[in-house]
Design a protein that fits this description.
The chain is α/β, with parallel strands linked by helices and 488 residues long. Helix content is 41%, strand content 14%. It is built from 12 helices and 15 strands. The chain has helices spanning 39-50, 70-78, 89-101, 120-141, 159-167, 186-192, 215-229, 246-249, 317-355, 382-389, 421-460, 465-487; strands spanning 13-14, 27-28, 113-117, 150-154, 171-175, 197-203, 235-238, 262-268, 280-284, 296-298, 305-307, 358-360, 369-374, 398-400, 409-414. The strands form 4 sheets. The chain has a 7-stranded mixed beta sheet, sandwiched between helices. It has a 4-stranded antiparallel beta sheet with strand order 12-13-15-14. The longest helix has 40 residues, at 421-460. The chain starts with 12 loop residues before the first strand and ends with a helix.
Length: 488
């Protein structure tokens, strides 16, 4: 991040036992040092600090790929000094493969329209810009105002949609959630559509609970509204998580270019595309969906080259890695990986259900993840479970749902390719241990509170059950916070 802050006054220098062999003074942490140091010292200083990072394999909060085959690692290192803008063939091959995977209406010799990005965030910015410009051009041609574009999404969208709306001055109209229904309701979404709507964004794999939104129903309802109003409001599918899942294990699901109103789709190669962080893709249905004026042509790299990205230079390693995965795994390989992920998610889900302590919030059909909440969170919360799991090295996020379901708190475990059945079973055991410890502490706090309240009641009169519960909860929270500090 560009936005940052310095540490405390006592933490302004970098120290290293190994570096002291070469460096007699500590290094400034937030300023460039005046003098150079030996390469061995620089390496050791950074390596020492990297050891403090969490284990990426145990970070169950992230959808991002954390393991690839050694052969692909070698290819990435060989391409690490190559610039993406100097490459043409491999991005085009990937775009065409993904377009066919998403059932783009391409002829035998027709080339797909798409571009590689640094992730789905950039891909969504580009798709949104194309929708906005196309809508503006149409409104201008009709002599109508084009200064108030809006986009309809669910409240469950990833923050990149809020960024797009903010950065490019588009009103974001969100369909609110409700308890038990944590994705966009297609009926309510279509109700929000008006003549200024540049597109409706559907999510194939919600970040919150992995659920696929009903793109088919949205398409059918929107077709009917367009017919009644004369509008031609399109659909964009944010398939960041689900784009490399649905084609392989839910081939009958209609969500892609088989639906006439789906004009563009983004997908993250660094999620279930099985590539390390830093690659995404956006594919357009046809070249007519991408306004020509948004495409720039350059020739100062040796040949005419069209470009439509928010940045220019970037590494090419991830593109090479994506191409490797596509040809190495093929349809069969991706299908095997996704089926394994789904099966491991089922193992984890069943293990959690057997504890009798959790409600499962995620759906069986969707991204392979398990979202769950405590049946009883009066004594402690999902946030306490999340914090206590860090003792075992697990990073399991806890978070509240968006409006209007913000009173619901869940834990979420993302099942990636490198999360085995053994790890799933071990996680259940560790969660059980955490619950046992939290129960023991809660019982102790409750006993102490009961004794304390008994003494107070003898002097001041009996308290209500609600007042007693609030006091227990307050003392419990303080106790857990002190325990967290001690553990850290």
């Amino acid at each position: 991040m560009v936005l940052s802050k310095t540490a405390s006054e006592s933490d302004v220098s970098v120290h290293s036992t190994f570096a002291s062999r070469y460096v007699r003074t500590s290094l400034p942490r937030f300023k460039m040092p005046e003098n150079c140091i030996p390469k061995e010292a620089a390496y050791q200083i950074i390596n020492d600090e990297l050891m403090l990072d969490g284990n990426p394999r145990l970070n169950l909060a992230s959808f991002v790929t954390t393991w690839m085959e050694p052969e692909c690692d070698k290819l990435m290192m060989a391409a690490i000094n190559k610039n993406y803008v100097d490459m043409d063939e491999y991005p085009n091959r990937c775009v065409n493969m993904i377009a066919h995977l998403f059932n783009a209406p391409l002829g035998d010799s027709e080339t797909a329209v798409g571009v590689g990005t640094v992730g789905s965030s950039e891909a969504i910015m580009l798709a949104g810009l194309a929708f906005k410009r196309k809508w503006q051009n149409k409104r201008k041609a009709e002599g109508k105002p084009c200064d108030k574009p809006n986009i309809v999404t669910g409240a469950n969208v990833q923050v990149c949609w809020e960024k797009f709306a903010n950065y490019f001055e588009v009103e974001l109209k969100e369909v609110k959630l409700r308890e038990g229904y944590y994705v966009m309701d297609p009926v309510k979404a279509v109700e929000l559509v008006d003549e200024n709507t540049i597109c409706v964004a559907a999510i194939l794999g919600s970040t919150l609970n992995g659920e696929f939104e009903d793109v088919k129903l949205l398409n059918d309802l929107l077709l009917e509204k367009n017919k009644q109003t004369g509008w031609d409001t399109p659909i964009h599918v944010d398939a960041a998580s689900g784009g490399f899942i649905a084609p392989f294990i839910y081939p009958e699901l209609e969500w892609d270019f088989r639906l006439p109103l789906v004009k563009s789709i983004n997908v993250s190669g660094h999620k279930y595309g099985l590539v390390y962080a830093g690659i995404g893709w956006v594919i357009w249905r046809t070249k007519e969906e991408l306004p020509e004026e948004l495409i720039f042509h350059i020739n100062y790299l040796g040949a005419d080259q069209p470009t439509f990205t928010l940045n220019f230079s970037k590494g090419s390693s991830q593109v090479i890695a994506q191409y490797y995965q596509l040809i190495r795994l093929g349809f069969e390989g991706y299908q095997n990986v996704m089926e394994n992920c789904r099966e491991n998610a089922i193992v984890l889900k069943q293990g959690l259900e057997q504890t009798g302590r959790f409600n499962i919030v995620s759906k069986d059909k969707g991204v392979p993840l398990v979202a769950f909440s405590l049946k009883d969170n009066l004594s402690y919360t999902e946030f306490d479970v999340s914090e206590m799991l860090r003792r075992f090295g697990w990073i399991v996020p806890a978070y509240t749902m968006p409006a209007d379901a913000q009173h619901v708190t869940v834990l979420r475990v993302v099942i990636r390719e490198d999360f085995s059945r053994t790890l799933a079973e071990r996680l259940v055991l560790d969660i059980t241990k955490v619950l046992h410890d939290l129960d023991a502490v809660a019982a102790k706090v409750s006993t102490n509170m009961a004794i304390s309240n008994g003494e107070k009641n003898a002097k001041n009169g009996k308290k209500t059950a609600m007042e007693t519960q609030r006091e227990i909860t307050d003392v419990w929270k303080k106790f857990v916070q002190a325990r967290k500090t001690k553990i850290c």
